[in-house]
Amino acid sequence: MDKKLLKKVAKRIKSLRKDFKYTQDDLSYHSEIARSTIGNIETAQNDVTLTKLNKIAKAFNLSLSEFLNFDN
Questions:
Q1: Residue 11 and residue 5: Cα distance in Å, rounded?
Q2: Range of 17's domain?
Q3: Cα torsion through 20, 61, 16, 54, rounded to 10
Q4: Does the pLDDT of residue 72 top 60, yes or no?
Q5: For position 42, which CATH number holds?
Q6: Per residue in 17-47, pLDDT tens?
Q7: What is the reported pTM?
Q8: How far does Cα 53 stand from its chain's mean position?
Q9: Do residues 60 and 54 touch, judged by C-beta distance below 8 A?
């Protein structure tokens, strides 16, 4: 994934996490992804798989397509 897209994904996750009042630990629990991995994704340091993006989307009760809608 290119760095620009990684940064958009990171920004989207941070924004949703704040909207849901989740800490990284909360998101880790709800998505079943390690907190350190969540942190790396949020800082655009890790490439992220579709499987992980789908788990994160589900943690926010969103479909993957809704999650990837960056126009909101």
A1: 10
A2: 3-67
A3: 140
A4: no
A5: 1.10.260.40
A6: 999 999 999 999 999 999 999 999 999 998 8
A7: 0.91
A8: 6
A9: no
